[in-house]
Design brief:
Layout lengths: L2 H34 L5 H18 L1 H9 L7 H33 L13 H19 L2 H5 E3 L9 E3 L3 E4 L3 H39 L1 H7 L5 H32 L5 H11 L1 H13 L1 H23 L1
Antiparallel strand pairs: 1-3, 2-3
Helix pairs in contact: 1-2, 1-3, 1-11, 1-12, 2-4, 2-5, 2-11, 4-5, 4-7, 7-9, 9-10, 9-11
């Protein structure tokens, strides 16, 4: 094993471990909340789906890491198809869930005299069906992945492939490849557009509210106002998402336009697609900081009561 493969393996291992740790912490918090009897907010269901999608995306880092450290590691025919297929599906669900989260927050904070206010009562009821629709849409959109995916042995004598170290994707005909790229890019652009629109709308509303109550904040405390902190949180989450995913989309389109790609180009694409799932839970943990404290307090109180009952 050369030094470059070792560096690639360390990068994938660190990225996967960090992302799994953060997403597992979020999932544990929600599990504790269920057992503690804490009432969940409508957005918690979106965050759960987003977290599970992030975990599936990060699972691809496991075979990538093993393939980097061991040059003789290959997936079989069927596992190879499933690994790449569900990675792409989960990546799409992560994008659509983040977009839905941003749109729902925009509807929630919209003024009562705005057009979005009429959806406030209906929005919590359509979150579940919309998430189910997102999974179904992504499952159908990426159905071509199993068709063009094969194992290393099946792709040895084929030109024009994307080599991931443990399995390969066979490039389709130019017309088919172009249509696939347009379809995938359109899906990503639509959800990114919704996310950016809703985030701009939220920032606009929060800044207007801040201007109205600015004299109150100035007289009460010199610290940042809640509106400013909320605006910064929204801008941080959306900016990081857009940065990582736009870069990933551009790189994916570039790889699809090539006749064949080397392993290191494919590794870069996989690492870039896992950037947001790795850092997303830490951004959400900051947003859910008070929720975490409440969960921990409730869990401690529940455990303490159970210990007292056992002693009695």
């Amino acid at each position: 094993m050369n030094s470059r493969d070792m560096v690639v393996g360390i990068i994938f291992l660190s990225q996967t471990a960090l992302g799994m740790l953060g997403n597992s912490a979020l999932l544990c918090c929600f599990i504790i909340a269920v057992f503690s009897g804490i009432r969940e907010k409508p957005t918690d269901l979106i965050v759960k789906h987003l977290t599970w999608a992030n975990v599936i995306v990060l699972c691809r880092g496991i075979p990538q890491t093993i393939a980097a450290f061991s040059q003789t590691y290959y997936l079989n025919y069927v596992p190879c198809k499933l690994a790449l297929y569900f990675h792409r599906v989960a990546r799409g669900v992560s994008l659509s869930s983040t977009s839905l989260l941003s749109v729902f927050q925009a509807i929630t904070i919209s003024p009562s005299n705005s057009r979005c206010a009429q959806f406030k009562l209906r929005a919590p009821g359509i979150i579940g069906p919309f998430l189910g629709l997102c999974w179904a849409l992504q499952l159908l959109l990426y159905i071509f992945i199993p068709v063009y995916t094969t194992d290393i042995r099946g792709g040895r004598n084929i030109t024009g492939i994307q080599d991931f170290g443990y399995c390969v994707i066979i490039n389709s005909e130019r017309l088919t490849s172009t249509l696939i790229v347009i379809l995938i890019a359109s899906n990503d652009i639509i959800f990114l557009g919704l996310m950016m629109w809703s985030s701009d709308y939220m920032v606009f509303i929060l800044l207007k509210h801040k201007q109205r109550v600015q004299h109150i904040h100035r007289s009460l405390s010199p610290r940042l106002s809640p509106e400013t902190r909320a605006t910064q949180s929204i801008l941080t989450l959306v900016s990081s998402f857009v940065l990582f995913y736009v870069t990933s989309i551009v790189f994916t389109v570039y790889l699809s336009a090539l006749e064949g790609t080397t392993r290191w180009l494919s590794n870069i694409g996989v690492a870039m697609s896992a950037c947001f799932p790795t850092f997303c839970p830490f951004l959400l943990i900051r947003h859910y900081a008070s929720f975490f404290r409440l969960c921990c307090t409730s869990f401690y109180q529940t455990t303490r009561r159970a210990c007292v009952v056992r002693e009695l």
